[in-house]
Design brief:
240 residues, alpha+beta, four-stranded mixed sheet, 12 strands, 26% strand
């Protein structure tokens, strides 16, 4: 799948889904440890309304005034993941006040579980452009304002929603977008048993020794291998 492309997760798109899984055997998600615990204990993945996001370009379309109270904008929930297995920036971004964890997800098994869900779900890969180019696209896309008034998500909206500023290119982000019933909290949770789809868990490289041992001991109960990122480990390099 190229940047800016997307597919609906349904059985009629099985060939495209299989191709994505072949190209991406694993996908990765970085999240705070407390969010991981919630996910493991409830067997539910959290999808968030873009209205709750901070990036003004990410939720630009969600801040537009709309006349249609039943607009799909109130029904969309997103889960973001990355194709970048290692990134120093991610550890800080997703755990500003604590520690983070990276989970390695089996793509095929994950998408297979989503195929069984009754919600409208699609998978899209972000396209990274210069900020001025994105502004031009937003201003010049005919019918974009009308597209957000519709009851159901549409191609014109999706194409625009998958644009992101180039400074975020390191994220190598894709999104699972779900259209479901509105939620006052801006959160929608889907039942997903992580033990079937998570290959391993990597603990934050900044974590101290005894904290690492304690977390490893606790997380072993979920029968998923627990490792620690070696990003900051001294390699004891000898030079001549």
């Amino acid at each position: 799948m190229k940047e800016g492309e997307y597919i609906y997760l349904n059985n009629s798109n099985k060939e495209a889904i299989d191709k994505f899984c072949e190209e991406n055997e694993y996908i990765y998600r970085f999240l705070p440890l407390e969010r991981l615990l919630e996910t493991l204990q409830t067997s539910k993945l959290t999808f968030v309304s873009p209205k709750k996001w901070n990036d003004p370009f990410d939720n630009f379309l969600f801040r537009q005034e709309v006349k249609n109270e039943d607009t799909f904008l109130n029904k969309l929930f997103v889960l973001c993941f990355t194709h970048n297995s290692h990134s120093q920036a991610y550890w800080k971004t997703y755990a500003k006040e604590g520690y983070c964890v990276r989970i390695k997800i089996k793509t095929k098994e994950f998408l297979s579980l989503l195929l069984n869900n009754k919600s409208l779900i699609l998978l899209g890969k972000m396209k990274y452009l210069n900020e001025t180019k994105i502004v031009e696209e937003l201003q010049q896309t005919v019918g974009l304002k009308e597209s957000v008034e519709k009851d159901k998500i549409n191609d014109l909206f999706i194409k625009t929603f998958l644009l992101k500023r180039r400074p975020f290119k390191y994220e190598e982000e894709s999104r699972i977008i779900v259209q479901n019933i509105p939620s006052k909290s801006g959160i929608r949770k889907l039942s997903i048993n992580l033990s079937h789809i998570v290959k391993d868990k990597y603990l934050d490289p900044r974590m101290e020794k005894y904290e690492t041992l304690a977390w490893k001991d606790y997380l072993q109960q979920f029968n998923i291998p627990v490792l620690k990122s070696q990003l900051f480990v001294d390699k004891n390099i000898k030079i001549q």
